[in-house]
Specification:
Length: 592
């Protein structure tokens, strides 16, 4: 949520700021703005909406500036609430949430200060003006001591027009250094480029940037040396590669993401610490949010089936306050594409506090989650920009299925699972081709009263993800439901305006799932079938269908989700929505 950028150097700041913000738009696109210093004054341009609204600001001239793209938390998306916030000699941009801002604002207002915006962030500019006595870093430190919550901050001061100072706590911030300039950004794609050395600012640390160098400081403002950040160029690339939308491009990358994410842990890690932990594991507890939570549901099915180790999956924001019972022999797994989701991080820290070994499954090697985990299992999906997660889900499943196989092996139950897993990239390519059929289904979904996605077992796990995809980008009400549970209440929703998408990949359960098809069709619903069992294609109650390849029962969500992702994508377009930028959402939610 929210992306920030900064530039100080011999070149022109504005084009970098605008381009950098475009690469961070996945973090929010409610408003955008930049502030520069020119002739001893601030020049600021901000607008409600996406970064495209301030594209012409790229023509402004200055060697120093900061920028922001917003996902609104405090105060509506509006120009007034857009960052940068300017007060007196200071301009600031902020990513995070200040939990005590109301109290701080009240105190400042009682001192006679007036505020322009409804944001939590504006207090920072006021506090800087209050504490500044000529030393910018000391003032920033004093201000951050007053803040409760999370922040990545970048500050400009008219008294020192050649430097940017930054601070971070619990929100990511990277510094880039290149010949003649220093850069900052919330994520690598905005600063990555030839000749750029990147550094990660740690929690509580500060940085001071000028055109020649970046200096780093401890929370006590002692100078510190930082190691260069190694980053994957795959993660840092962020162009559409000829596709109209990132979502479609990222779906086309599913086979490659799956291929790259397969890991033979059992052989590779035998006799390692991690393998020993797997041998001793009696229970697994998974925490995650959104799509990553759905990966957890799907892998529970695979782990329990292959390794017979019981798995619990909890939504991270619920886990935190549930006073969880944690048994000895538990292995915790936190799944997060970004590795920055605040709820997931908080749940992961709770496991750490109870000395439970923690595995991070994440797509970002330098993320906060990576840094707190005992073991990191990277997903190799490459950069994912579309807010609706696609290839990262398939990559998470691949890594977690690899883990399930390692557990199967550690529990002395070796089978043919790895060979079966290795077939998935090829099968994913075939599924992508088959999934194009759903393009012709969209007219039956646009304007639907409600859409139901149903299945049993692993099919149910894919159904909930299919439902989330659809509602995220089409705004149609939808539910993912266990097929057998439909008759216990939800069937009341079904009529001729309720398309029912049925997942059917398990022969053992097929006849039972078909009962739900009969129940829905009898109430006038159109049934859309996604199946790997050819004999059901011609069923007279099925309105339309897609045949997908068969794969091992434990792994089916990895394939069956693909037509569901395509259905959401094409329906969003038919609804006139931008699938890459759904309203109200952001890809990375760094507030609890
Ligand atoms: C946000 C995104 C979802 C994502 C969830 C978890 O809500 O909109 O698409 O699944 O965060 O993100 P993570 O980075 O932790 O996987």
């Amino acid at each position: 949520m929210c992306g920030i950028v900064g530039y100080v150097g011999k070149g022109n700041a504005a084009p970098f700021l605008v381009e950098g913000l475009k690469k961070l738009e996945y973090r929010g696109y409610d408003s955008a703005g930049i502030a520069l210093i020119n002739d001893g004054k601030f020049v600021c341009k901000k607008r409600k909406g996406t970064v495209a609204e301030i594209s012409d600001a790229a023509d402004l001239c200055s060697g120093i500036g900061i920028g922001h793209t917003r996902w609104a938390t405090h105060g509506a998306p509006s120009e007034r609430n857009a960052h940068p916030h300017i007060y007196g000699r200071f301009a600031i941009v902020h990513n995070g949430i200040l939990e005590n801002y109301a109290l701080l604002k009240e105190q400042l207002e009682s001192d006679g200060e007036t505020f322009i915006s409804e944001t939590d962030s504006e207090v920072v500019a006021h506090l800087l003006e209050k504490f500044y006595c000529g030393n910018l870093l000391s003032a920033l430190r004093e201000v951050t001591e007053k803040l409760v919550g999370s922040y990545a901050l970048a500050v400009l001061c008219l008294d020192q027009p050649d430097i940017i100072v930054c601070a971070r706590k619990a929100s990511p911030l990277l510094v880039g250094v290149k010949e003649g300039a220093c850069l900052i950004a919330s994520d690598i794609p905005a600063i990555a480029g030839e000749g750029v050395t990147a550094y990660l600012l740690g929690d509580g640390e500060f940085a001071l940037l000028n055109a020649a160098e970046a200096k780093f400081y401890s929370p006590q403002l002692q100078p510190i040396r930082k190691n260069q950040l190694e980053y994957d160029p795959l993660i840092s690339s962020s162009d559409k590669g000829g596709y109209v939308h990132f979502m479609k491009k990222e779906m086309s990358e599913i086979p490659c993401s799956v291929r790259n994410s397969i890991c033979d842990f059992a052989t590779k890690l035998k006799f390692s610490d991690f393998y020993q932990v797997l041998c001793q594991t009696k229970y697994i507890h998974i925490v995650a949010c959104g799509t990553a939570y759905h990966s957890g549901l799907a892998v529970k099915y695979a782990i329990e089936r292959l390794a017979r180790v019981p798995v619990e999956v909890t939504i991270a924001s619920e886990f935190r306050y549930s006073n969880p019972v944690i048994c000895s022999g538990t292995l915790a797994i936190a799944i997060s594409q970004s590795g920055e989701t605040a709820d997931t991080l908080a749940a992961a820290k709770l496991f750490r506090a109870k000395s439970v070994p923690l595995v991070a499954v994440t797509n970002v090697s330098y993320s906060s989650l990576t840094r707190i985990a005992d073991f990191v299992l990277p997903t190799r999906a490459g950069s994912e920009i579309g807010v609706a997660a696609t290839k990262s889900y398939n990559a998470q499943l691949t890594v977690l299925y690899s883990l399930a196989i390692a557990l199967e092996n550690a529990k002395g139950k070796s089978g043919k699972s790895l060979e079966r897993l290795k077939r998935l990239p090829r099968l994913a390519t075939a599924t992508l081709e088959a999934a194009e059929t759903v393009r012709s289904w969209t007219s039956h979904f646009v304007g639907a009263r409600c859409v139901l996605f149903i299945g049993r077992g692993a099919d149910y796990c894919a159904a909930v993800e299919g439902s989330l995809k659809l509602k995220e980008i089409t705004y149609l009400p939808s539910e993912g439901y266990p097929a057998g549970e439909l008759k216990h209440g939800t069937l009341a929703l079904v009529d001729e305006r309720t398309p029912v998408v049925v997942l059917l990949t398990n022969k053992r359960l097929a006849a039972k799932t078909m009962n739900a098809v009969h129940e829905a069709a009898a109430r006038g619903a159109k049934v859309f079938l996604i199946t790997s069992i050819a004999e059901y294609l011609e069923n007279e109650e099925v309105f339309a269908s897609v045949l997908i390849p068969q794969c091992s029962e434990a792994f089916t969500p990895l394939l069956s989700v693909i037509p569901l992702q395509a259905l959401a994508y094409y329906t969003a377009i038919a609804c006139g929505n931008d699938p890459d930028k759904p309203r109200n959402l952001a890809k990375s939610v760094t507030v609890e």
